[in-house]
Amino acid sequence: MLGAIFVISGARALAKPEYLDSQAKQVTDWFTPVLEKASLPTETRTLIRLNGAVQVAGALLLAAGRARRPAALALAASLVPSTAAGHPFWAHDDPEQRLDDQVHFLKNLGLFGGLLLAALDTEGRPGLRWRTAALMDGTRNSARRTARLAARDAQRRVSTARRQARMARRIAQRQPTIARRAARAGHFAGRLASRLPG
């Protein structure tokens, strides 16, 4: 529906650019120096036809759902010179003509907004901005998770080392007791051996 008006106005511009020639001349004259530097055509009727072709192609792509976002952007861009040339309400002295052009200017402004929304719409799929933010969040969360796991692992290693140190101290403290008991046992064994016959 959004593209329907562009098919009609674009086809009219392609078929009969002479009807728009006098209005478009004011706008194309502004862009002539830029177009000449870019080695693009500057003849008004050629530019009207080019704008019409962009409108027809963009509207058909938009309606078909093919290359929808670029098509909406192209239509929005083609709408700017069309609106400036076709509805310059600020240039009219007649209040009726001014009001009529102002209504059409505002209608085109609404179409421009709709086209921008169509160009930004991702049809429920995450857009580039959201995907970038999600990737950054995921990377940040992954780094935090890795840091937490490393900290836990370090704490476990420290706890294990402390436990082993305590056990080693206990064993070291028991060494003299064990040595004394062994000496006593050896002493009793010696006495026992001396009492035995032959």
Number of strands: 0
Which percent bin holds the helix content? over 70%
Give a short account of the largest sheet. none
H/E element order: HHHHHH
Rg, please?
Answer: 44 Å
What coarse outline follows from CA principal-axis ratios?
Answer: rod-shaped
Low-confidence stretches: none
Number of helices: 6
Could you report the average pLDDT, rounded to the nearest whole number? 82
Structural class: mainly alpha
Strand content: under 5%
Q: Number of folding domains?
A: 2
- Oligomer kind: single chain
How far is the first residue's CA from the last residue's CA? 123 Å
What can you see in these coordinates?
The protein has 198 residues and is an all-alpha fold. The chain has two domains: 4-121, no CATH class; 131-198. Helix content is 82%, strand content 0%. The chain has helices at residues 4-15, 21-37, 44-64, 68-86, 95-120, 128-195. The longest helix is centred in the last third of the chain and has 68 residues, at 128-195. The radius of gyration is 44 Å and the shape is rod-shaped. The relative contact order is 0.07. The mean pLDDT is 82.
Write the layout of secondary structure elements.
Layout: H1 4-15, H2 21-37, H3 44-64, H4 68-86, H5 95-120, H6 128-195
Helix pairs in contact: 1-3, 2-3, 2-4, 3-4, 4-5
Feature tags:
mainly alpha, 6 helices, 82% helix
TL;DR?
With 198 residues, the chain is mainly alpha-helical. 82% of the residues lie in helices and 0% in strands.
